[in-house]
Amino acid sequence: MNCNDSMINNSILKKRNDPGRNFQILAISNRHLCNQPFEDQIKRVCEWHPDALVLREKDLPEDEYKALAKNILDICKAYDVPCILHTYWKAALELGHDAIHLPLPLLRELSAESQKHLQSQNSTISQSFHVTDFHKIGTSVHSVEDAMEAERLGATYVTAGHIFTTDCKKGLPPRGLDFLKNVCDAVTIPIYGIGGIKFDPQQWNSLKKQGACGGCIMSGMMQL
Predict the structure, then answer these.
(1) Coil, strand or helix: which one is 85?
(2) Omega cis (within 30) before 97
(3) With left for phi above 0 and alpha for psi between -120 and 50, is residue 99 left, alpha or beta?
(4) Is 16 in contact with 207 (CB distance < 8 Å)?
(5) From CA 107, how far away is CA 105, in angstroms rounded?
(6) Contact partners, residue 11, CB within 8 Å, separation at least 6
(7) For residue range 147-176, what is the model confidence (pLDDT) as tens digits?
(8) If you average pLDDT over residues 79-99, what whole number do you get?
(9) Cα–Cα distance between 73 and 82 in angstroms, integer?
């Protein structure tokens, strides 16, 4: 994700709110990038009305994440912005929320244990996980094989990247648009490009041409 992209203008705001627009934008949170209190920033993001907000604050302990998520869910509801929680699926269920984004290794582990009904070292955590408990399950992928596995495991969408050069991935070359096209061609679930995505309709169009249904913006959203 582009750590320096914080600019947005009124023409893009109008285009973003055009009901005829058919390219989705997911806002990805990162409270460490905000220049104002996090919840105030989330309100500002919701005023822009992305297609969904992913609450990615996975570095928090689960109890702190759950408390934060409760407040963010209330804000998103007030602005009619769908919210997707991240990593802490148990907290999501306790909050009565059915949209979650799981790291692929965690989705793999939980899905395997759920399907096999096996007791394991982590059984007390994972034994109650069921894909059917969630209306929306996302995960992040970095290869065509990852995307195909995610679809088999029950993911309803994936983020694929990183697509463009970004300061957040210094020293790592972007996977590029050809990679994105290959992922889109390999699966039937929605694909969202991630990494270096800006408030740039021309860039969005380049993602759409590869088959992506949308893109993800973190730093730009956190610095609106």
Answers:
(1) strand
(2) no
(3) beta
(4) no
(5) 6
(6) none
(7) 999 999 999 999 999 999 877 777 789 999
(8) 97
(9) 8
